[in-house]
Records
---
Amino acid sequence: MKTTIFSIILTLVTLFAAVGNHPTAAAESDTAERPNIILIFTDDQGYQDLGCFGSTTIKTPNLDRMAAEGTRLTSFYAQPVCGVSRAALMTGSYPIRIAEPRNVKQLHTVPHPQEITMAEVLGNAGYATALIGKWHLTAKKGGAPGGFDPATMPNSQGFDYFYGTPLFNGFTVYVDDTKFRSPIFRNEEVVVEGVESWDSITGDYTREALKWIEQNRDRPFFLYLAHNLPHVPVGASEQFKGKSEYGPYGDTIEEIDWSSGEIFKKLKELGIDEQTIVIFTSDNGPWVETTHAMQPGGRPFIPRDHSGSALPLRGWKMAAWDGGCRVPCIVRWPGQVPAGRSSDEILSTMDLLPTFAKLARAELPDWSIDGRDATDFLRGQTETSPRDEYLYYTGCLLTGVRSGQWKLVLPRSANPSGTGWWGRMIEAVPATSLYNLTDDPGETTDVSAENPEIVAALMKRIERARAELGDIDQTGSGARSFDPEPRRLQVPIRRPASPTPNPAPKNARIGYDEFKPLGDLRFTFEDGTLAAWEIVEGKLGRPVSSLPSLPRWATAPYNREGKHHLTTVEMADGFGDSQTAVVRSPRFTLSGDRASFLVSGGHVPNQLYVALVDAATGKPLLTAGGAGSPQMRRVVWDVEKFKDRPVYLEVVDRYDGPWGHLTFDDFSAEGKLVVE
């Protein structure tokens, strides 16, 4: 566990206070001022799967009562997949920002042991901490208990007590469909080698939770009750099995509702109900996959009564639509959080860390996080959430942004490269689109053509996110790293698929983004020549083009700055991806913090990319590429650490496969050319 100066000081203050005060009185005072915190976190529960969120077939009287006695948040966001979601929750950061061992961005995030978790923040402030349930933030290690690296397990990440599973409970409809069996740990010891049935798990976790609450009643505590269910394979005890109208999935939710009721009953029995804030939410949307990858006529997979519903939202777990990451959320704290209140303000799981820290008077990490303190908002002292945007990341792929009622969705291919196994659930989006989520929560009607100014404003948020957090093909300036290795994806970006013309409707064309130049150093090719640029490798037929589009993409013209751009696709007698070349800019130095340009075509690491290169060593400092599309995307680089260093740009095309070309335009930065 990481130790901070703050925690040492706090411990000394607490010890001195204990000498001069009656310990019981001191504990009672401490608890009254700083609430107990209970976070109930379900797995794969859909947005609609509570009575208070619209279900008519799943009975949840205890959670409905919780909503009546507290606040219901209807625009609450997690992340679209289990491990990534838990990483965001524990660190208060988008997973793309979080450091991971050896800088490998895993499909299920594994926070680096030096990351600081919610449990560490609260534990350092004197809270007792426990995780009962699913962890799913660990790395494997041969020879270690259960085969998991102890440095990435809960007891090393701030939890005094752990009882539960290191990963998920399974990935098939029934336990016997696979040889996989999950172990159960008690702290660092494996107490169950492999679970054969999940029917008793909710009851087991509930009993563990009630016992732990009673043991820690006289001090502030943080209980993270992370149910394995309703993730498949589902299970329910005899008391609930076969009782729900919805079927096996409904049985599971109804038992979790019972469990939540038992928690509230225990708080009242111990007289600490009014000193305890309880949050109920889910890690992501429901795992709806009736056939593999939801292909029509495909291999049957999860029966409909074994997974939930995200209605009225579009999509489900792993999807980039709201149904994948927008989840039910209820907050209850008698006398502190308004009862019977419902809010559609945007909030996220990342906001819980700074909120809990404020309530606990705890010290946050001394680095940037993405969470916002929502204390005043939750207490009803303001009706405005501290969060003014939510960024939609599919792993490391940025797919959109929401601000207020508006959601911008970026163009993407189906099953995007670099997203691994969850990419199978990602649908293609041919052009930038805009949705009014207040009027259209199902994301059915693109209104981008009618609202160009909103599209432009949201694109600026996208540009800032790419610069600070990054994207699947670039590392953000604010991404954390504790190891020397360069960042890489667990599943590398694959070779681009063959381009198939599927032009966007005319009213969805993307024009030039009217980007304000970042400085006087500019490369725009508007004289129709390479000017001071040179081809240093290979050969190009027509390196500077005035043509408005690729031949088969007339309805998706280049969204360049003027009438010319640099290209590697035009031959002397036509078009083709077979020619290869490297085109280099003149040398220059940078004096500003950012540089920007437009790029389209493909992107293949080490073969097809645009690079900022150190002129002294020839080493690429930053790289980016196209998105397998004819339309240019805006790249904004953070170049502050490269100021006053001689550098140059290279457009590198050593790839002759599909989308094996680049187009480049509208570079701007503060700087000056190096006089040779």
---
Amino acid sequence: MSDYYADKLAGLQDIFGTAALTLEQDWLQVGERRYPIVDDVIVLLDEEQYPPALRDRLGLSPAKRALRGEAFAADIQSTFGNEWKIFREILPEHETEFRNYFDLVDTEALGGLRICDLGCGIGRWSFFLKDKCRELVLVDFSEAIFVARGNLQDCPRALFFMGDLKALPFRPGFADFLFCLGVLHHLPTDALEEVRNLKKYANALLIYLYYALDNRPAHFRWLLALVTAVRLITARIRNRTFRAAFTWLVACFVYAPLIWLGHLLDPVGLSRYVPLHVDYKGKSLGRIQQDVYDRFFTRIEQRFARDQVAALTDTYPDVVISGHGPYWHFLCTNGGVKNDGLIAAASGPPAREVVEKPATETIARRQQRRGLRSAATIGLLLFSFAFLMLITNVPTGLTAEDIVVFEKDLDLKVLPHPQSFEDEIRTIRLIQARVFAKAPHGAPIPEYEPREPSDLVRLQRGWCYDRSRTLDKAFTYLGFETRHVYLLYRKDLSLFASLFRRGHPSHAVTEVMTSKGWLYVDSNQTWIALDRDGKPHGAGGIWKHFNQFDGAPEYVRGPWWAIRGLYSRKGAFYAPYFPLPQLNWQDFLKWVFVEKLTTP
């Protein structure tokens, strides 16, 4: 029997609205329905709605096809399940966000109430309510509900359900207070109608729906149209490596620069014209990545203007819309002393009391000024993006100084051009050996100092990321197509966590294109990834074939992520040493948008 719910039968009977409820071994029987209990989560979904991992755990065969339509979207379920398994931690900034969302609610008045967190994700909002209420009911239709169970493992008053909010088997009015933040706008049905439908479950509801940028300058909406076009493409791509790389790329080179730009413009009062700055200033990169993932990999996204939200007064007597972000979050109540007690003192005017500011300029004049501001802001943003790409790009072309090193110090000029695969392998081994002869193992070239071939030969020492730069260019000198590869060891962490964990194990190698395919060339030992059958292997996934190689270094066992075109995670290797990841943008984008985009 599931011990967790043994002392919660009375609460479950009240939620389902029936006394015909029994708890069995890993099952909850409600009338004629039997709901499985997995890791203390009561699964309310119909069997055809189970995500694949849950079907495996319950010993069920795979579903014949993914559900997608007006009632249920399996791709949205999968996206959010994966998102919250990656971004599973409750972060310090979540508490600030909680206060922003709950500015309309007097949380001290929740003490004796049953609260429902609908679309709970990892339970990040319930986490801050767990000591403020009588009982918590958490509902999510994805595997995020299991993460929420872990995050609230010390809350004995919490009940966990995997269910579809459009088909909950709960009685009307089962909750005293219900909140649904950032969920309904991802449904395949009209989000405002779903707000109206939720009235039956509670007399007071706190809702957050994406805003239509109706209180922002015009260029915000232009950029949103561009983002939407990109999202409709990226949401179709399920490859996890692509999603991880794309999320990291956008967080570092779109969100972070805009936040930084807004910070620079804040003293002169122009930061409000910079997209993302107001919403993300002060947030960690990990928190930003979670929102990037949400924004670009969710197929359905609805947005609403304030007037549309205010129209909910056709269903609820009181609709109070917060005047503060996130926009728009609002409190719907049916009135009454009990519900009025939930409303915070400084909640702002009800939706029906919106008063327009008197116009002081003609419409044409205002439109002209807005257009000029928007054009100037977009121009500044484009310039900033181009500037950041320029200063973080690592060029791969040969310089005159490189050629001198290869011809005089490494004596590569006398090597003939390979005519066969065997010639290619001999040449590759020879170049690798000569680089190691000039710069055997020793202290690394210090950070924030040059590490070109001339520096390696002059110092006669270096680490993998020092020698790999010289190997890259030496193979290029002899006419090989090459690419730099950054190996990031997994260590049971996600790619996101590994990228930004200080001191996380990594390695730098070179890939060389031979007549039979890409070949991994190591930069710590004179070893290349040529298996016993003479087949070359690139860096991606060779650790899976470790036993097929002779003399492979132990660190080749992996596992790792092979990131093409990345040279440094923190900008410490190549001038001007700007504190952002350093990449060869051509190789990196080719890897992300060509190789990973076309890989299942």
---
Amino acid sequence: MLQYIKKYIKGWFLGIILFFIFISFTFWGVGDIFRGGDSHIIKIGKYKISRDIFLKEFDSNVRYLKKNKKLNKVELENVANETLINIKDRYLILNAAKMMDIDVSEKILRKKIYENELFQNKLKGNKFDKNIYFNFVNLNFGSEEAYLDYIKNQTIIEIITNYFDKQIFYSHNLTNKIYNKIEEKKSFQISSIDKNYLKSKFKVPDKKIILKYFNENKKNYFFGERRSFSYIFVNLDYLKKKINVSEDDILDAYNNQKQDFLIPEKRKVEQLFFDSEEIGKKTLNSINKENKFEEIAKKEKKVTYITLGLIEKDQLFDEFVEPVFKLKENEFTKLIKTSIGWHILKVTKIIKKKSKELNEVRNTIKENIALDKAYDEFDIILNEIDDKITNGSNLEEISNKLNLDLVNVKLLEKKLFFNSELNDEIKINNFYKEVYEGELNSDLFIEEIEDGFFIVRVDEIVNDQLKTFEEAYNDVINDVNEERINEEINNIIKKFKKKLDDGVDFIKISDLLKMDNRFTKKINREDVINQGFSLEFTNKIFESKKNTIHENETSDKYYIVKVESDSEINFDNEKFNNVKNSVNKIYGIENFQQITKILENKYPVMVNKSLFNDFIDRLQY
């Protein structure tokens, strides 16, 4: 709970902005958003969302956030991921709304259109102008029907998300408790024993010792429940490998998408910055093409030189774009005013835009075509399998008739499922439950998951069974070594406690017993967790009184912790209000996410990971 709250209090802002940004997504610049026929980047239920829709929304989100600060590549990647999530969530809502026959009345649609400033004629007292309206609709949506559908969808989404964004509030007492847990601080003395170091000191036990230990503890070495099963697993990657993409397909796609493979023009730009217009004008009147900006700044104390490096249009302030990209090499702009001062910019190098050659993008195009076809093939196969199951076909018949791989797994132990050599894509809870909670030869059914589906049949069930010495050999060695380590640790701890009782200083004892040790300043719960302790143990030591001694064991360490101080909580009104606002936002999002998880089970979501990852790879700083 604490980590969850703390995580979001630190980083919720970007997520919140993007989560709700589409509500105020304006019509300006929508372009051909509903007409694109390019590759699909995500599928939600029956809706296929094109890359063009994603790119336009991503660009809108970036422009919105760039008003406050320039985004680095990591932040751009975050925006891309949040944009995809936003699109997914919206279409999950629209799927559900369609199923429940939720609609928006003509009266509301008419009101939204008439009140939209885009369609008001300023020369006629800001009255609604039908000509402006139809010109906009035809240019951006192709038809009024498409535009009305867009408004309906936007209205439905706005109503639902508005509830989670603005109408959920949590009690003052909850905020107090969270704030106190976040801000409470204590200091500690910590000593530790490194288990891995102890283990490295031990040699492999003699085989006679191992056998003796096995015979004394035979009942502890057994196979848990094991099951044999058969399954068919299909996802987009699997189908992609089966699809043949011709050279003609690749060439046609390249010619149709050349704009996507365009490397934008870049310009090397230098800048002189001035605090006052007077100095800027004076400098502008005294320079020519041959002057070097850096040398000018060295001579004039009130002039700052900045090199922007090689940049593209969208990396410049809006005020700079047009004047800079009109310049030839070694030309400079007039004096430009911005909110921070006055500027003169100079272009010292121009790298013209160019398109990547076919050979440079062949594999990417082939991958995208195959994936796009895989989406269509996926639906066809899903329907065919459903028909065959309805008609009584078994897995072997389905595999043979549809040319799908049938995998047989022999006696896999239940507790080893997630650490087995099975394909990682099926090591999921849904598959696990079907195998280990299913009955022998039960009826087949299709289980849809992200980007795919599976059908599984349980063929054999073997209950708990004792292991032979050979089967248990490695387990026995581990247990023997574990006993040795525990015995060594117990001896060290007894000595430690004896010296504590004798009044020896905590850190001094650690040094005498060659234990790692440290003294912390006053730190909060998150700081303790970041040092490797569990949330449960962290809460325990924070709830303890001064001078209390605690022990804690992890997989590779054994700790002794002394509480060195009483609790300290400093109240800060600004921090408290931030926590309060964050709690409401976090729980609003959490509640919304619970809804979308339910909807994802009903309307499976499949992301074109290849297309999306390619987009991420091409993001510029």
---
Amino acid sequence: MIGEALVRISRSLHEHTRQLEIAVEGRYAGELDNPRVALLNDSLNVSRAADIELGKLNQSLRNAAQRLQMAAPINESATSKFEREREALATSISHLKREKNELSILYEIAGTLNSTLQFDEVLRLVMDRVIEFVNAERGFLMLINPDTKEPEFRMARNKEARTISESEFSTAQISRSTVMRVINTRTPVLTDNAQTDAALQGMESIMTFGILSIMCAPLIVRNTCIGAVYVDSRINEKLFAPRHLDMMLAFCNQAAIAIENARLFAQVQEDKRYMENIFKSIANGIITTDSSGIITTFNAAASVILNMRAATAIGKHYQEAFASIPQVGLVNLLRNAPLQHMQPEHSTLVNTSVDCQIPGRPGDVSLNCYVSSLRDSQGKDIGMALVIDDRTELKRSLAQARRIRSIFERYVHPNVVEELIRDPHALNLGGETKEISVVFADIRGYTSLSERMAPADVMNLINRYLQLMCEAIWEEEGTITAFQGDALMAIFNAPLQQRNHALRAIRSAWKMRAALEAYQRSQPQEAIVRYGIGVNTGQATVGNIGSQDRLQNYTAIGDVVNVASRLQNGATDNNIYLNESTFIQVYPYVKASPPFPLQVKNKAEPLSVRSLLGLAHSS
């Protein structure tokens, strides 16, 4: 009977040894530095030693049987000795069998823990297998939070493989103090009767809740404690023996590696999602290839810029993917990039701007492309990264800014030009009808000046007077739309909206008067001139007028412009006339004469006109 049992055990252990040899010396032969493979290698060595010992025991048993058959009748003392040897042999066989079973379980557990990298699933497997392995009533697992460095509850399970929720755990009869002790000291705890263990007498939860058997082991990976596994029983004392603790420590070594790998995998997945979100949100197009030229990444911006769906490009060689848009030049750029990257000083290749047309996108497209080599930690080439900077809108904005500047910089204050450039939508060059205030001003006495002064002096004098007028208009952010000999026209509330445009027009007219009179006080009598100014408010059409391909001016047309011109013509020397439509909007801020009628050209009825006498202090 003993011989047959030895044969069965030997065969089973021999088969187990063969499987370990296949794994350790075959499949994982190059990974002996991996802690899990090292554990399997230790199991293989134990199995081989046990197999050899079983063979020796079997042979000894056969030799003993043969001697018994050949020997004379055995005396009583010899029989007793044989019985002792047989019992020792049986004990040894039982011990080897148990070791074999435990090694098999560890081998199976290693495979189970390696079956997934999902963090929560790994934790569940760890707890279920350890509870089953040591026949505990329940168990839980705590891990050190990598950010706070504080232990946190992660998983609690019972022997029915049911999860104990965190809310239950907060009131469960489990000793947190034991776990904290193990984590802090990195020393495992084992007791077969916690109620009588002097080392645990001070722990209230253990004494209160009647916990009998306890076993707790740290989870250590790369010399860092990442948590602890705790199991206990309130039913059985002496449930755990030192050999259980040894096996649990071996199990925890595997579990710690599995947990750390799962945690790293989760971090990698999180980093991957983070990078994908970055790629989706970044304005530049980003395209990557592997070392063979197959496109591996194609972000949303690249799809918009190239008007190409990512699904049609990813997984294809860049020559095939970009064959439909040869005008962009991406194929040549990527083909030539590796030649440039062979030189260490050329880690990045920047090409000149590409101006072309892309089907599905309106107008010309302006792109800047950058190619960088991708290399691993050893410097080996693993592909390329192409960054496409779409400069189309910027280029269009710059062209629009140049157009706005060319139209307005001669007529309006530079601040108004900059505001128009910042908000081009506020400008309607095509023409619009709106309320404006118009100022007409002219210098009188040009003919008499020509008789007394040289033409060049006359021109310089007129320009000086017009300069003073322009500065007054610009101070109120008006738009000078025309110079007509010795006269000028300015408008307010165009091109930009000006809520108080009528008051701005009045203030600019009064500032003209003050500037002209101040200047004339410093001039000789022959350089003194007269002036007249008219101000009117009303509806007009404003926009660009002129040849589209040649010369255009931003100006206003309409009756309000004509009336302002008539007011200027009808104004007496050195006076400012304003129409009633303007006075209604500014009367709280100005001093003006009583209204009087003024008959003007092309008007059947005289206008109700006032003469501007000054500005109120609140203006």
